[in-house]
Protein backbone atom coordinates (compact mmCIF):
# COMPACT_ATOMS: atom_id res chain seq x y z
CA UNK A 1 0.00 0.00 0.00
CA UNK A 2 1.05 3.60 -0.54
CA UNK A 3 2.71 4.87 2.68
CA UNK A 4 0.73 8.15 2.74
CA UNK A 5 -2.57 7.06 1.19
CA UNK A 6 -5.06 4.23 1.04
CA UNK A 7 -4.62 1.29 -1.31
CA UNK A 8 -3.00 1.33 -4.70
CA UNK A 9 -2.27 4.48 -6.77
CA UNK A 10 -4.14 3.08 -9.83
CA UNK A 11 -7.42 3.13 -7.94
CA UNK A 12 -7.08 6.70 -6.62
CA UNK A 13 -10.21 8.86 -6.77
CA UNK A 14 -9.98 11.97 -8.92
CA UNK A 15 -12.72 14.35 -7.84
CA UNK A 16 -14.79 15.57 -10.78
CA UNK A 17 -15.27 19.34 -11.16
CA UNK A 18 -18.86 19.10 -9.90
CA UNK A 19 -17.67 17.56 -6.63
CA UNK A 20 -14.74 19.98 -6.33
CA UNK A 21 -17.18 22.88 -6.65
CA UNK A 22 -19.30 21.50 -3.82
CA UNK A 23 -16.23 20.87 -1.66
CA UNK A 24 -15.10 24.45 -2.29
CA UNK A 25 -18.52 25.78 -1.35
CA UNK A 26 -18.70 23.68 1.81
CA UNK A 27 -15.13 23.91 3.12
CA UNK A 28 -13.08 26.13 0.83
CA UNK A 29 -10.47 24.33 -1.27
CA UNK A 30 -6.97 24.50 0.19
CA UNK A 31 -4.01 22.79 -1.44
CA UNK A 32 -2.57 20.35 1.06
CA UNK A 33 0.23 18.41 -0.62
CA UNK A 34 2.06 15.60 1.16
CA UNK A 35 5.74 16.00 2.06
CA UNK A 36 7.98 13.76 -0.02
CA UNK A 37 11.42 12.36 0.67
CA UNK A 38 11.10 11.94 4.46
CA UNK A 39 13.27 9.20 5.95
CA UNK A 40 12.80 7.14 9.11
CA UNK A 41 14.95 7.83 12.19
CA UNK A 42 18.30 6.14 12.79
CA UNK A 43 18.04 2.38 13.49
CA UNK A 44 18.19 1.82 17.24
CA UNK A 45 18.92 -1.93 17.11
CA UNK A 46 22.65 -2.58 17.13
CA UNK A 47 24.30 -4.92 14.64
CA UNK A 48 24.51 -7.84 17.10
CA UNK A 49 20.75 -7.69 17.68
CA UNK A 50 20.10 -7.54 13.94
CA UNK A 51 22.34 -10.60 13.58
CA UNK A 52 20.23 -12.32 16.21
CA UNK A 53 17.12 -11.70 14.09
CA UNK A 54 18.91 -12.88 10.94
CA UNK A 55 19.86 -16.12 12.66
CA UNK A 56 16.16 -16.83 13.27
CA UNK A 57 14.50 -15.91 9.96
CA UNK A 58 17.41 -15.70 7.52
CA UNK A 59 19.25 -12.64 6.15
CA UNK A 60 16.73 -12.02 3.39
CA UNK A 61 13.89 -11.61 5.85
CA UNK A 62 15.32 -8.92 8.11
CA UNK A 63 14.71 -5.67 6.24
CA UNK A 64 16.16 -2.37 7.39
CA UNK A 65 15.86 -0.25 4.25
CA UNK A 66 14.02 3.07 4.54
CA UNK A 67 11.23 2.15 2.11
CA UNK A 68 10.23 -1.03 3.95
CA UNK A 69 10.45 0.63 7.38
CA UNK A 70 8.31 3.50 6.07
CA UNK A 71 5.69 1.09 4.73
CA UNK A 72 5.39 -0.57 8.14
CA UNK A 73 4.91 2.70 10.05
CA UNK A 74 1.50 3.03 11.77
CA UNK A 75 -1.86 2.22 10.14
CA UNK A 76 -4.45 4.05 8.07
CA UNK A 77 -6.50 6.26 10.36
CA UNK A 78 -6.74 9.90 9.28
CA UNK A 79 -4.24 10.98 12.00
CA UNK A 80 -1.90 8.23 10.72
CA UNK A 81 -2.24 9.58 7.17
CA UNK A 82 -1.83 13.20 8.30
CA UNK A 83 1.38 12.29 10.14
CA UNK A 84 2.65 10.35 7.11
CA UNK A 85 1.73 13.23 4.80
CA UNK A 86 3.66 15.59 7.07
CA UNK A 87 6.75 13.36 6.77
CA UNK A 88 6.57 12.25 10.42
CA UNK A 89 8.12 8.76 10.58
CA UNK A 90 8.96 8.78 14.29
CA UNK A 91 7.03 5.52 14.83
CA UNK A 92 8.97 3.62 12.15
CA UNK A 93 10.22 0.19 13.25
CA UNK A 94 13.96 -0.37 13.40
CA UNK A 95 13.60 -3.51 11.32
CA UNK A 96 10.91 -5.48 9.54
CA UNK A 97 11.15 -9.20 10.23
CA UNK A 98 9.29 -11.77 8.13
CA UNK A 99 8.99 -15.22 9.74
CA UNK A 100 7.98 -18.21 7.62
CA UNK A 101 5.76 -19.98 10.13
CA UNK A 102 4.65 -20.58 13.71
CA UNK A 103 7.98 -21.94 14.97
CA UNK A 104 9.95 -18.93 13.77
CA UNK A 105 7.38 -16.61 15.35
CA UNK A 106 7.72 -18.46 18.67
CA UNK A 107 11.52 -18.28 18.49
CA UNK A 108 11.38 -14.55 17.66
CA UNK A 109 9.18 -13.84 20.69
CA UNK A 110 11.52 -15.74 23.01
CA UNK A 111 14.50 -13.86 21.54
CA UNK A 112 12.72 -10.48 21.86
CA UNK A 113 11.88 -11.23 25.50
CA UNK A 114 15.50 -12.06 26.26
CA UNK A 115 16.81 -8.92 24.55
CA UNK A 116 13.98 -6.55 25.50
CA UNK A 117 13.02 -5.71 21.95
CA UNK A 118 9.45 -4.52 21.34
CA UNK A 119 7.49 -6.47 18.72
CA UNK A 120 4.54 -5.18 16.68
CA UNK A 121 2.66 -7.89 14.75
CA UNK A 122 1.79 -6.53 11.31
CA UNK A 123 -0.96 -7.99 9.09
CA UNK A 124 -2.39 -5.72 6.42
CA UNK A 125 -1.55 -2.44 8.17
CA UNK A 126 -5.13 -1.15 7.88
CA UNK A 127 -5.57 -0.49 11.60
CA UNK A 128 -7.40 2.77 12.36
CA UNK A 129 -6.94 2.96 16.14
CA UNK A 130 -3.19 3.37 16.61
CA UNK A 131 -2.68 -0.37 17.16
CA UNK A 132 0.54 -0.35 15.12
CA UNK A 133 2.08 2.61 16.96
CA UNK A 134 3.52 0.82 19.96
CA UNK A 135 5.60 2.53 22.66
CA UNK A 136 9.33 1.97 22.34
CA UNK A 137 10.74 3.64 25.48
CA UNK A 138 12.54 1.21 27.76
CA UNK A 139 13.24 -1.20 24.88
CA UNK A 140 16.43 -1.88 22.94
CA UNK A 141 14.50 -1.31 19.74
CA UNK A 142 11.25 -2.11 17.97
CA UNK A 143 10.61 -4.60 15.19
CA UNK A 144 7.62 -5.00 12.94
CA UNK A 145 6.77 -8.71 12.80
CA UNK A 146 5.38 -8.86 9.30
CA UNK A 147 3.21 -11.93 8.65
CA UNK A 148 3.36 -11.51 4.88
CA UNK A 149 5.10 -14.86 4.28
CA UNK A 150 2.51 -16.86 6.21
CA UNK A 151 -0.11 -17.24 3.50
CA UNK A 152 -1.09 -20.87 3.28
CA UNK A 153 -4.47 -22.53 3.33
CA UNK A 154 -3.49 -25.23 5.81
CA UNK A 155 -6.61 -27.37 5.77
CA UNK A 156 -10.11 -27.64 4.40
CA UNK A 157 -12.65 -29.88 6.11
CA UNK A 158 -15.53 -30.22 3.65
CA UNK A 159 -17.50 -32.37 6.10
CA UNK A 160 -17.43 -29.91 8.99
CA UNK A 161 -17.24 -26.90 6.62
CA UNK A 162 -14.17 -25.36 8.21
CA UNK A 163 -10.89 -24.05 6.80
CA UNK A 164 -7.60 -23.34 8.53
CA UNK A 165 -5.77 -20.28 7.26
CA UNK A 166 -2.44 -18.64 7.99
CA UNK A 167 -2.63 -15.07 9.30
CA UNK A 168 -0.84 -13.24 6.51
CA UNK A 169 -3.46 -13.99 3.85
CA UNK A 170 -5.17 -10.79 2.69
CA UNK A 171 -8.95 -10.90 2.24
CA UNK A 172 -8.91 -11.51 -1.54
CA UNK A 173 -6.12 -14.11 -1.24
CA UNK A 174 -8.10 -16.09 1.34
CA UNK A 175 -11.25 -15.89 -0.75
CA UNK A 176 -9.37 -17.02 -3.89
CA UNK A 177 -7.97 -20.07 -2.08
CA UNK A 178 -11.39 -20.95 -0.66
CA UNK A 179 -13.04 -20.42 -4.06
CA UNK A 180 -10.85 -23.27 -5.33
CA UNK A 181 -12.98 -25.51 -3.09
CA UNK A 182 -16.28 -23.81 -3.95
CA UNK A 183 -16.26 -22.05 -0.56
CA UNK A 184 -16.37 -18.55 0.85
CA UNK A 185 -15.67 -16.92 4.18
CA UNK A 186 -18.05 -14.05 3.45
CA UNK A 187 -16.03 -11.51 5.45
CA UNK A 188 -16.00 -8.22 3.55
CA UNK A 189 -14.97 -5.24 5.66
CA UNK A 190 -14.42 -2.07 3.66
CA UNK A 191 -10.68 -2.74 4.09
CA UNK A 192 -11.10 -6.27 2.63
CA UNK A 193 -8.66 -5.78 -0.24
CA UNK A 194 -5.70 -5.08 2.07
CA UNK A 195 -6.47 -6.42 5.56
CA UNK A 196 -5.36 -9.89 6.70
CA UNK A 197 -6.88 -12.96 8.33
CA UNK A 198 -4.70 -12.49 11.43
CA UNK A 199 -5.71 -8.83 11.63
CA UNK A 200 -9.41 -9.73 11.37
CA UNK A 201 -9.01 -12.10 14.31
CA UNK A 202 -6.80 -9.78 16.35
CA UNK A 203 -9.28 -6.89 16.03
CA UNK A 204 -12.61 -8.77 16.02
CA UNK A 205 -13.46 -7.25 12.70
CA UNK A 206 -16.95 -7.05 11.26
CA UNK A 207 -17.66 -7.09 7.52
CA UNK A 208 -20.36 -5.50 5.39
CA UNK A 209 -22.13 -8.87 5.04
CA UNK A 210 -22.21 -9.47 8.79
CA UNK A 211 -26.01 -9.83 8.85
CA UNK A 212 -25.67 -12.96 6.71
CA UNK A 213 -22.24 -14.37 7.59
CA UNK A 214 -21.67 -12.99 11.09
CA UNK A 215 -18.75 -11.03 12.55
CA UNK A 216 -15.26 -12.46 12.08
CA UNK A 217 -15.02 -13.54 15.73
CA UNK A 218 -18.24 -15.52 15.27
CA UNK A 219 -16.68 -17.36 12.33
CA UNK A 220 -13.59 -18.50 14.24
CA UNK A 221 -13.85 -22.01 15.66
CA UNK A 222 -10.20 -22.50 16.63
CA UNK A 223 -6.90 -20.68 16.60
CA UNK A 224 -3.25 -20.95 17.51
CA UNK A 225 -1.09 -18.19 18.92
CA UNK A 226 2.57 -18.01 19.78
CA UNK A 227 3.09 -16.10 23.01
CA UNK A 228 6.38 -15.23 24.72
CA UNK A 229 5.66 -17.93 27.32
CA UNK A 230 4.35 -20.70 25.08
CA UNK A 231 1.91 -21.72 22.37
CA UNK A 232 -1.84 -21.55 22.92
CA UNK A 233 -4.10 -23.70 20.75
CA UNK A 234 -7.79 -23.24 21.48
CA UNK A 235 -11.01 -24.56 19.98
CA UNK A 236 -11.32 -28.34 20.14
CA UNK A 237 -15.01 -28.50 19.21
CA UNK A 238 -17.73 -26.32 17.68
CA UNK A 239 -19.02 -25.50 21.15
CA UNK A 240 -18.20 -26.66 24.65
CA UNK A 241 -18.74 -26.03 28.33
CA UNK A 242 -15.10 -26.50 29.30
CA UNK A 243 -14.77 -23.33 31.32
CA UNK A 244 -14.54 -19.82 29.91
CA UNK A 245 -14.02 -19.71 26.14
CA UNK A 246 -10.31 -19.02 25.71
CA UNK A 247 -10.78 -18.34 22.01
CA UNK A 248 -12.30 -15.07 23.09
CA UNK A 249 -9.14 -14.21 25.00
CA UNK A 250 -7.12 -14.25 21.80
CA UNK A 251 -9.78 -12.81 19.50
CA UNK A 252 -9.48 -9.04 19.87
CA UNK A 253 -6.15 -9.27 21.71
CA UNK A 254 -4.53 -6.92 19.15
CA UNK A 255 -1.11 -8.51 19.32
CA UNK A 256 -0.75 -7.74 23.03
CA UNK A 257 -1.02 -11.37 24.23
CA UNK A 258 0.52 -13.27 21.34
CA UNK A 259 0.85 -13.58 17.59
CA UNK A 260 -2.01 -15.48 15.96
CA UNK A 261 -0.35 -17.97 13.63
CA UNK A 262 -3.38 -19.90 12.33
CA UNK A 263 -7.12 -19.46 12.37
CA UNK A 264 -9.77 -22.11 11.73
CA UNK A 265 -12.94 -20.55 10.42
CA UNK A 266 -16.40 -21.75 9.58
CA UNK A 267 -16.91 -21.49 5.81
CA UNK A 268 -19.96 -21.56 3.55
CA UNK A 269 -20.59 -22.64 -0.03
CA UNK A 270 -19.79 -19.80 -2.42
CA UNK A 271 -23.08 -18.12 -3.33
CA UNK A 272 -24.49 -19.01 -6.74
CA UNK A 273 -26.44 -15.79 -6.78
CA UNK A 274 -26.13 -12.30 -5.34
CA UNK A 275 -28.68 -9.53 -5.52
CA UNK A 276 -28.50 -6.02 -4.03
CA UNK A 277 -31.19 -3.36 -3.98
CA UNK A 278 -32.22 -0.06 -2.43
CA UNK A 279 -35.11 1.12 -0.25
CA UNK A 280 -36.07 4.61 0.78
CA UNK A 281 -37.38 5.47 4.27
CA UNK A 282 -39.00 8.70 5.38
CA UNK A 283 -36.66 8.97 8.39
CA UNK A 284 -33.62 7.33 10.04
CA UNK A 285 -35.87 6.23 12.91
CA UNK A 286 -38.37 4.52 10.59
CA UNK A 287 -35.59 2.71 8.70
CA UNK A 288 -33.88 1.65 11.96
CA UNK A 289 -37.15 0.30 13.33
CA UNK A 290 -37.56 -1.75 10.15
CA UNK A 291 -34.06 -3.20 10.62
CA UNK A 292 -34.92 -4.12 14.20
CA UNK A 293 -38.13 -5.80 13.07
CA UNK A 294 -36.25 -7.91 10.53
CA UNK A 295 -33.50 -8.85 13.00
CA UNK A 296 -35.96 -9.83 15.72
CA UNK A 297 -38.05 -11.86 13.25
CA UNK A 298 -34.95 -13.77 12.11
CA UNK A 299 -35.36 -12.40 8.59
CA UNK A 300 -32.16 -10.47 7.97
CA UNK A 301 -30.76 -10.32 4.45
CA UNK A 302 -27.03 -10.94 3.93
CA UNK A 303 -26.30 -7.21 3.74
CA UNK A 304 -28.31 -4.46 5.37
CA UNK A 305 -27.26 -0.87 6.00
CA UNK A 306 -29.13 2.38 6.41
CA UNK A 307 -27.84 5.92 5.84
CA UNK A 308 -29.24 8.82 7.80
CA UNK A 309 -30.72 11.84 6.02
CA UNK A 310 -27.36 13.66 5.73
CA UNK A 311 -25.45 10.66 4.44
CA UNK A 312 -28.21 9.89 1.96
CA UNK A 313 -28.18 13.47 0.69
CA UNK A 314 -24.39 13.61 0.30
CA UNK A 315 -24.17 10.22 -1.40
CA UNK A 316 -20.50 9.48 -0.72
CA UNK A 317 -20.65 6.17 -2.58
CA UNK A 318 -20.48 7.92 -5.93
CA UNK A 319 -18.06 10.89 -6.19
CA UNK A 320 -19.50 11.79 -9.61
CA UNK A 321 -22.93 12.27 -8.01
CA UNK A 322 -21.95 13.75 -4.65
CA UNK A 323 -24.75 15.86 -3.27
CA UNK A 324 -27.35 14.60 -5.73
CA UNK A 325 -29.26 11.83 -4.11
CA UNK A 326 -32.69 12.84 -2.95
CA UNK A 327 -34.61 12.81 0.30
CA UNK A 328 -35.19 10.45 3.16
CA UNK A 329 -32.87 7.64 4.13
CA UNK A 330 -31.33 5.09 1.80
CA UNK A 331 -31.24 1.45 2.89
CA UNK A 332 -29.22 -1.15 0.99
CA UNK A 333 -30.26 -4.78 1.22
CA UNK A 334 -28.33 -7.68 -0.30
CA UNK A 335 -29.03 -11.38 -0.65
CA UNK A 336 -26.50 -14.15 -1.27
CA UNK A 337 -26.94 -17.91 -1.59
CA UNK A 338 -28.57 -20.38 -3.93
CA UNK A 339 -31.17 -18.97 -6.31
CA UNK A 340 -33.91 -20.44 -4.11
CA UNK A 341 -32.44 -18.97 -0.90
CA UNK A 342 -32.08 -15.55 -2.49
CA UNK A 343 -35.63 -15.61 -3.87
CA UNK A 344 -37.28 -16.76 -0.66
CA UNK A 345 -35.39 -14.42 1.73
CA UNK A 346 -35.89 -11.51 -0.67
CA UNK A 347 -39.64 -12.18 -0.80
CA UNK A 348 -39.90 -12.35 3.01
CA UNK A 349 -37.89 -9.17 3.52
CA UNK A 350 -39.80 -7.33 0.80
CA UNK A 351 -43.11 -8.14 2.50
CA UNK A 352 -41.95 -6.83 5.88
CA UNK A 353 -40.27 -3.68 4.54
CA UNK A 354 -43.27 -2.81 2.34
CA UNK A 355 -45.66 -3.26 5.26
CA UNK A 356 -43.51 -0.94 7.38
CA UNK A 357 -43.58 1.85 4.80
CA UNK A 358 -40.32 1.36 2.91
CA UNK A 359 -40.29 2.38 -0.74
CA UNK A 360 -38.46 -0.06 -3.02
CA UNK A 361 -35.91 1.61 -5.32
CA UNK A 362 -34.98 -1.45 -7.32
CA UNK A 363 -31.55 -2.87 -8.10
CA UNK A 364 -29.72 0.30 -9.20
CA UNK A 365 -28.78 1.76 -5.77
CA UNK A 366 -27.81 -1.72 -4.56
CA UNK A 367 -25.64 -2.43 -7.58
CA UNK A 368 -24.00 0.99 -7.26
CA UNK A 369 -23.23 0.33 -3.61
CA UNK A 370 -21.87 -3.14 -4.42
CA UNK A 371 -19.72 -1.77 -7.24
CA UNK A 372 -18.20 1.00 -5.11
CA UNK A 373 -18.13 -0.77 -1.75
CA UNK A 374 -14.33 -0.79 -1.44
CA UNK A 375 -13.77 2.56 -3.16
CA UNK A 376 -14.85 5.09 -0.51
CA UNK A 377 -11.48 5.18 1.34
CA UNK A 378 -9.87 6.64 -1.81
CA UNK A 379 -12.21 9.61 -1.54
CA UNK A 380 -10.68 10.44 1.84
CA UNK A 381 -7.25 10.90 0.21
CA UNK A 382 -8.70 13.14 -2.49
CA UNK A 383 -10.35 15.31 0.19
CA UNK A 384 -7.19 15.40 2.35
CA UNK A 385 -5.34 16.64 -0.77
CA UNK A 386 -7.72 19.61 -0.76
CA UNK A 387 -7.44 20.46 2.92
CA UNK A 388 -10.61 18.75 4.12
CA UNK A 389 -10.45 16.77 7.36
CA UNK A 390 -12.29 13.47 6.88
CA UNK A 391 -12.49 10.67 9.42
CA UNK A 392 -14.83 7.96 10.67
CA UNK A 393 -15.71 6.43 14.03
CA UNK A 394 -18.11 3.75 15.13
CA UNK A 395 -19.94 2.43 18.17
CA UNK A 396 -22.81 0.10 19.06
CA UNK A 397 -25.66 -0.08 21.51
CA UNK A 398 -28.96 -1.76 22.28
CA UNK A 399 -32.00 -0.78 20.22
CA UNK A 400 -33.62 1.04 23.13
CA UNK A 401 -30.62 3.42 23.32
CA UNK A 402 -29.98 3.85 19.59
CA UNK A 403 -31.78 7.16 19.26
CA UNK A 404 -29.99 8.76 22.22
CA UNK A 405 -26.59 7.48 21.09
CA UNK A 406 -27.12 8.81 17.58
CA UNK A 407 -28.22 12.23 18.83
CA UNK A 408 -25.48 12.55 21.46
CA UNK A 409 -22.54 11.50 19.26
CA UNK A 410 -23.77 13.64 16.40
CA UNK A 411 -24.13 16.66 18.71
CA UNK A 412 -20.66 16.07 20.21
CA UNK A 413 -19.03 15.90 16.78
CA UNK A 414 -20.95 18.86 15.36
CA UNK A 415 -20.25 21.15 18.28
CA UNK A 416 -16.55 20.28 18.49
CA UNK A 417 -15.87 20.48 14.74
CA UNK A 418 -17.79 23.72 14.48
CA UNK A 419 -20.02 25.44 11.99
CA UNK A 420 -19.89 24.12 8.46
CA UNK A 421 -18.76 20.64 9.45
CA UNK A 422 -20.61 17.64 8.11
CA UNK A 423 -21.56 14.70 10.30
CA UNK A 424 -22.98 11.68 8.49
CA UNK A 425 -24.09 8.36 9.93
CA UNK A 426 -25.27 4.92 8.93
CA UNK A 427 -26.40 1.81 10.74
CA UNK A 428 -23.68 -0.58 9.66
CA UNK A 429 -24.34 -3.84 11.53
CA UNK A 430 -27.54 -5.22 12.96
CA UNK A 431 -28.33 -7.72 15.70
CA UNK A 432 -31.52 -8.90 17.40
CA UNK A 433 -30.73 -6.72 20.39
CA UNK A 434 -29.08 -3.68 18.86
CA UNK A 435 -26.95 -2.18 16.14
CA UNK A 436 -23.74 -0.40 15.29
CA UNK A 437 -23.65 3.26 14.23
CA UNK A 438 -20.88 4.41 11.90
CA UNK A 439 -20.15 8.14 11.65
CA UNK A 440 -18.23 9.97 8.93
CA UNK A 441 -17.19 13.60 9.44
CA UNK A 442 -15.84 16.26 7.13
CA UNK A 443 -14.62 19.72 8.14
CA UNK A 444 -12.26 22.39 6.91
CA UNK A 445 -8.77 21.59 8.22
CA UNK A 446 -7.43 24.01 10.82
CA UNK A 447 -3.75 24.73 11.47
CA UNK A 448 -3.39 21.50 13.46
CA UNK A 449 -5.83 18.97 11.96
CA UNK A 450 -4.66 16.11 14.21
CA UNK A 451 -5.43 18.12 17.36
CA UNK A 452 -8.69 19.27 15.75
CA UNK A 453 -9.73 15.66 15.23
CA UNK A 454 -8.55 14.54 18.68
CA UNK A 455 -10.85 17.10 20.34
CA UNK A 456 -13.83 15.91 18.29
CA UNK A 457 -13.00 12.25 18.83
CA UNK A 458 -12.70 12.74 22.59
CA UNK A 459 -16.08 14.49 22.71
CA UNK A 460 -17.70 11.69 20.68
CA UNK A 461 -16.02 9.01 22.81
CA UNK A 462 -17.23 10.67 26.04
CA UNK A 463 -20.74 10.75 24.57
CA UNK A 464 -20.57 7.02 23.75
CA UNK A 465 -19.52 6.04 27.25
CA UNK A 466 -22.09 8.39 28.84
CA UNK A 467 -24.80 6.79 26.69
CA UNK A 468 -23.77 3.31 27.90
CA UNK A 469 -22.51 2.33 24.44
CA UNK A 470 -19.21 0.71 23.44
CA UNK A 471 -16.16 2.68 22.43
CA UNK A 472 -15.80 0.38 19.42
CA UNK A 473 -17.98 -2.12 17.61
CA UNK A 474 -15.31 -3.30 15.14
CA UNK A 475 -12.29 -0.98 14.88
CA UNK A 476 -10.76 -2.30 18.13
CA UNK A 477 -8.95 -0.42 20.91
CA UNK A 478 -5.37 0.22 19.76
CA UNK A 479 -3.82 3.17 21.54
CA UNK A 480 -6.52 5.69 20.62
CA UNK A 481 -9.39 4.11 22.54
CA UNK A 482 -7.51 2.97 25.65
CA UNK A 483 -8.77 5.64 28.11
CA UNK A 484 -12.42 5.01 27.16
CA UNK A 485 -11.89 1.24 27.02
CA UNK A 486 -10.82 1.35 30.69
CA UNK A 487 -14.04 3.22 31.53
CA UNK A 488 -16.08 0.69 29.54
CA UNK A 489 -14.72 -2.45 31.21
CA UNK A 490 -14.15 -1.02 34.70
CA UNK A 491 -11.33 -1.43 37.18
CA UNK A 492 -11.72 -5.21 37.66
CA UNK A 493 -11.81 -5.74 33.91
CA UNK A 494 -8.57 -3.80 33.57
CA UNK A 495 -6.92 -5.90 36.29
CA UNK A 496 -7.95 -9.13 34.52
CA UNK A 497 -6.42 -7.98 31.24
CA UNK A 498 -3.22 -6.88 32.97
CA UNK A 499 -2.97 -10.25 34.70
CA UNK A 500 -3.32 -12.12 31.41
CA UNK A 501 -0.71 -9.85 29.85
CA UNK A 502 1.69 -10.48 32.75
CA UNK A 503 1.23 -14.24 32.36
CA UNK A 504 1.63 -14.45 28.57
CA UNK A 505 4.06 -11.59 28.01
CA UNK A 506 5.85 -10.91 31.31
CA UNK A 507 8.48 -8.63 29.73
CA UNK A 508 5.75 -6.64 27.98
CA UNK A 509 7.48 -6.82 24.59
CA UNK A 510 4.30 -7.36 22.55
CA UNK A 511 2.71 -4.18 21.27
CA UNK A 512 3.61 -2.06 24.32
CA UNK A 513 0.97 0.59 24.97
CA UNK A 514 -1.65 -1.07 22.75
CA UNK A 515 -4.98 -2.35 24.13
CA UNK A 516 -4.12 -2.88 27.81
CA UNK A 517 -5.06 0.21 29.89
C1 LIG B 1 -10.53 2.33 4.87
C2 LIG B 1 -10.72 1.37 5.99
C3 LIG B 1 -11.90 0.66 6.09
C4 LIG B 1 -12.09 -0.22 7.16
N1 LIG B 1 -13.25 -0.93 7.22
C5 LIG B 1 -13.44 -1.82 8.22
C6 LIG B 1 -14.63 -2.59 8.28
O1 LIG B 1 -15.52 -2.47 7.44
N2 LIG B 1 -14.75 -3.47 9.31
C7 LIG B 1 -13.76 -3.64 10.23
O2 LIG B 1 -13.91 -4.46 11.10
N3 LIG B 1 -12.64 -2.90 10.21
C8 LIG B 1 -12.45 -2.02 9.22
N4 LIG B 1 -11.29 -1.29 9.17
C9 LIG B 1 -10.26 -1.48 10.21
C10 LIG B 1 -9.21 -2.57 9.86
O3 LIG B 1 -9.24 -2.86 8.49
C11 LIG B 1 -9.49 -3.81 10.67
O4 LIG B 1 -9.22 -3.55 12.03
C12 LIG B 1 -8.69 -5.05 10.22
O5 LIG B 1 -9.19 -6.17 10.89
C13 LIG B 1 -7.22 -4.93 10.47
O6 LIG B 1 -6.59 -5.98 9.79
P1 LIG B 1 -5.07 -5.86 9.32
O7 LIG B 1 -4.66 -7.16 8.76
O8 LIG B 1 -4.89 -4.69 8.45
O9 LIG B 1 -4.37 -5.65 10.71
P2 LIG B 1 -3.19 -4.65 11.10
O10 LIG B 1 -3.61 -3.26 10.84
O11 LIG B 1 -1.93 -5.10 10.51
O12 LIG B 1 -3.16 -4.89 12.67
C14 LIG B 1 -4.22 -4.54 13.51
C15 LIG B 1 -3.86 -4.88 14.95
O13 LIG B 1 -3.80 -6.30 15.10
C16 LIG B 1 -2.48 -6.72 15.42
N5 LIG B 1 -2.24 -7.92 14.59
C17 LIG B 1 -2.25 -8.01 13.24
N6 LIG B 1 -2.05 -9.28 12.87
C18 LIG B 1 -1.92 -10.02 14.00
C19 LIG B 1 -1.69 -11.40 14.27
N7 LIG B 1 -1.56 -12.31 13.31
N8 LIG B 1 -1.60 -11.78 15.57
C20 LIG B 1 -1.73 -10.89 16.58
N9 LIG B 1 -1.94 -9.58 16.37
C21 LIG B 1 -2.04 -9.15 15.10
C22 LIG B 1 -1.57 -5.55 15.09
O14 LIG B 1 -0.41 -5.52 15.89
C23 LIG B 1 -2.49 -4.37 15.36
O15 LIG B 1 -2.51 -4.05 16.73
C24 LIG B 1 -11.08 -0.39 8.12
C25 LIG B 1 -9.88 0.33 8.00
C26 LIG B 1 -9.70 1.20 6.95
C27 LIG B 1 -8.42 1.95 6.83
Structural description of this entry:
With 517 residues, the chain is α+β, with helices and mostly antiparallel strands. Among the domains are: 9-146, Uridine Diphospho-n-acetylenolpyruvylglucosamine Reductase, domain 2; 153-269, 2-Layer Sandwich (Uridine Diphospho-n-acetylenolpyruvylglucosamine Reductase, domain 3), CATH 3.30.465.10; 271-373, Alpha-Beta Plaits (2-Layer Sandwich), CATH 3.30.70.3450. The protein is 37% helix and 21% strand. It has 18 helices and 18 strands. The strands form four sheets. A seven-stranded antiparallel beta sheet has the order 15-12-14-13-17-18-16, with helices on both faces. Helix 2 packs antiparallel against helix 5 (102-115). The mean pLDDT is 96. Residues 6, 75-76, 120-128, 131-132, 147, 167, 189-191, 195-196, 198-200, 202-203, 205-206, 254-255, 259-260, 377, 474-476, 511, 514 line the site of flavin-adenine dinucleotide. Residues 6, 75-76, 120-128, 131-132, 147, 167, 189-191, 195-196, 198-200, 202-203, 205-206, 254-255, 259-260, 377, 474-476, 511, 514 line the site of flavin-adenine dinucleotide (FAD).
Amino acid sequence: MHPQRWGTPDAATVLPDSALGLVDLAFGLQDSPAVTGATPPRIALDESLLDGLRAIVGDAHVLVDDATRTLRTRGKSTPDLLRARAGDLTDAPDAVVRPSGHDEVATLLAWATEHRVAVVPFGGGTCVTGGLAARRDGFAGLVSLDLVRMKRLLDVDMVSMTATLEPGLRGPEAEALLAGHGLTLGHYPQSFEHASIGGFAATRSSGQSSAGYGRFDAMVVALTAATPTGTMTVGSSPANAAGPDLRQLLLGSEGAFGVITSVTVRVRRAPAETSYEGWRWPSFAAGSDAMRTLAQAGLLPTVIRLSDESETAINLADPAAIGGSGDGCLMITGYEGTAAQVASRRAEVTTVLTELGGVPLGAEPGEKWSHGRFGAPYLRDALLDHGVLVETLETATFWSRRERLYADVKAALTSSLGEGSLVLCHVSHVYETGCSLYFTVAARQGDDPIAQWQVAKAAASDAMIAAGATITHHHAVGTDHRPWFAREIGEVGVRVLRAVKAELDPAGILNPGVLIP
